[in-house]
């Protein structure tokens, strides 16, 4: 089925550029670059919603770990979804896993994919090198998308010759649970690419929102300055971090206070984002660094994942 669809899309793009421009890409086969936290989640939801998935990472060991993580996560989903019918749950897990193939050689697989979703390390040079290389091997119709949280999509797209078929697809952690996907349109992204990605996110059972290629897109642009403002309030001694957390939970109805959330997101991640924005626009008061955040990160206190951040977690 996927083969027929790919052949169809390819023949459309080669025979008639005008009609191809009007037709959206129906994504059936997805290549996910990076089998870490986000890539594994994206591969899982894509496979569970009927797509065939090629998952790529640097070593077979990482890929084996990644696939094991996907299996565990699928078992949790199956337990809830098929509570009354464990056999159907097992079938769902096996069927989904069988739709995911793994490889360490992305260049050899992208010729037959409709969409490449990149979720590798947050480093512009590394992302650019990978996309530049894959651009030469991918099919003409293939859409490239990056899951970057903090880099400009345009600066990644510029490493390729397919800026019109390049966009941002920003998923949220944990991917199988979080409903939102931000679909990021650069000035070069074609309407056809954008609409194809919106359809793809809906096929995953997610809720897409659209945003231009602006720092932080929607969620992080509002969330990170809020977290940084909470840190500044605490650093000035205006209130304790415990009271700030309580205030936002009980007064604003947030499920978590900003310091709890900072420890959950990761202080290293937050510092990385704010440093990147500060470098882009050092005069913006929302993008100013924080002394306590820098200090904690220098001490390798990243929050929940290291056991200590603004709070102790053990
Ligand atoms: N963690 C989050 O909450 C979150 C949320 C949204 C977006 N993102 C973005 O998603 C991307 C991945 O984040 P993550 O948290 O999954 O990172 P991660 O470190 O868990 O996973 C990254 C994976 O990419 C692999 N990798 C690195 N270079 C590679 C290459 N050249 N080819 C193939 N694989 C390669 C690594 O081996 C690793 O398994 C980043 O761009 C990040 O900004 C992260």
UniProtKB/TrEMBL annotation:
Pfam families: 3HCDH, 3HCDH_N. GO terms for molecular function: (3S)-3-hydroxyacyl-CoA dehydrogenase (NAD+) activity; NAD+ binding. It catalyses: (3S)-hydroxyhexadecanoyl-CoA + NAD(+) = 3-oxohexadecanoyl-CoA + NADH + H(+); (3S)-3-hydroxybutanoyl-CoA + NAD(+) = acetoacetyl-CoA + NADH + H(+); (3S)-hydroxydecanoyl-CoA + NAD(+) = 3-oxodecanoyl-CoA + NADH + H(+); a (3S)-3-hydroxyacyl-CoA + NAD(+) = a 3-oxoacyl-CoA + NADH + H(+). InterPro entries: 3-OHacyl-CoA_DH, 3-OHacyl-CoA_DH_CS, 3-OHacyl-CoA_DH_NAD-bd, 3HC_DH_C, 6-PGluconate_DH-like_C_sf, 6PGD_dom2, Mito_3-hydroxyacyl-CoA_DH, NAD(P)-bd_dom_sf. One of its GO terms (cellular component) is mitochondrial matrix. Keywords: Acetylation, Differentiation, Fatty acid metabolism, Hydroxylation, Lipid metabolism, Mitochondrion, NAD, Oxidoreductase, Spermatogenesis, Transit peptide. CoA binds at residues 73, 80, 149. Belongs to the 3-hydroxyacyl-CoA dehydrogenase family. This is Hydroxyacyl-coenzyme A dehydrogenase, mitochondrial. The gene is HADH.
């Amino acid at each position: 089925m996927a083969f027929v669809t790919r052949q169809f899309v390819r023949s459309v793009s080669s025979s008639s550029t005008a009609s191809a421009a009007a037709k959206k890409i129906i994504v059936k086969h997805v290549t996910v670059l990076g089998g870490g936290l986000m890539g594994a989640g994206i591969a899982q939801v894509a496979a569970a919603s009927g797509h065939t998935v090629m998952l790529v990472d640097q070593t077979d060991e990482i890929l084996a770990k990644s696939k094991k993580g996907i299996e565990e996560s699928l078992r949790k989903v199956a337990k809830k979804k098929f509570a009354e019918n464990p056999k159907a749950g097992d079938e769902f897990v096996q069927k989904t896993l069988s739709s995911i193939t793994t490889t360490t050689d992305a260049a050899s697989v992208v010729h037959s994919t409709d969409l490449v979703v990149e979720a590798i390390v947050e480093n512009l040079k590394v992302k650019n090198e990978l996309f530049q290389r894959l651009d030469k091997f991918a099919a003409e119709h293939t859409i490239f998308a990056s899951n970057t949280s903090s880099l400009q999509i345009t600066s990644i797209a510029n490493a390729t010759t397919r800026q019109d078929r390049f966009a941002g697809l920003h998923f949220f952690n944990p991917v199988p649970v979080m409903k939102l996907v931000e679909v990021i349109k650069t000035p070069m992204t074609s309407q056809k690419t954008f609409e194809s990605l919106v359809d793809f996110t809906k096929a995953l059972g997610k809720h897409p929102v659209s945003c231009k290629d602006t720092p932080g897109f929607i969620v992080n642009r509002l969330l990170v300055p809020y977290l940084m403002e909470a840190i500044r309030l605490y650093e000035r001694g205006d209130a304790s971090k415990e009271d700030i957390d309580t205030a936002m939970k009980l007064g604003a109805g947030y499920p978590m206070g900003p310091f709890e959330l900072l420890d959950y997101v990761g202080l290293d991640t937050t510092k990385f984002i704010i440093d990147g924005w500060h470098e882009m626009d050092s005069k913006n008061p929302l993008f100013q660094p924080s002394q306590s955040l820098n200090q904690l990160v220098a001490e390798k206190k990243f929050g929940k994942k290291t056991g200590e951040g603004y709070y102790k977690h053990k």
